[in-house]
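sanity check this chain:
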Amino acid sequence: MVGVGCYVDSCRDCAQCNDSNENYCLNGFTGTYNGPKKHGGVGGNQEGKTMGGYSASHTVHEHYCYQIPEGIPLECAAPILCAGITMYEPLRHWGATVPGVEKVIGVAGIGGLGTMGIKIAKALGHKVVAISSSMKKE
C-alpha cells in the first residue's frame, strides 16, 4: 500500500529537485489537487489537471509514492501524507531532524496542522512550545 502527499511531480532535474527539495522545484511542482500536468510524471490526459483523492484512480511516478507500513490503518496514514508532510518539511528544512540536536520549537496556531507539528516535533525529541491566541487550547 502506498500513498502520495501534497505534490506528485516536478522536473526532477533542477538544483532544488537534485537536492531533494522537489517542493521548491524551479520549474514548478505539480500539486496533487488541480495541478497542471507539466513534467510527464502523472498519468492520464496531459492536457488535464490532477484530481488527487477525488479521482477514481491516480497514476503517479514512484518517486512521489510513500510506502505505508503494514499494520498502519489507512485512516491513520492519510493525515500524515497531508498535514504531516506540511509540518515535517519545515522541521527538516530548519534542522529539527538532525539526530542528537535538541531544539526548542514554537508552533504558532494549534489547529489541525499545529497539532500535527507539536506531535512530530515532540517525537523528534524537542521541547515544544504551543502558541495560540485562544485560552481554550491551553
Q: What stands out?
A: The longest helix spans residues 74-93. The first strand starts at residue 2 and ends at 4.
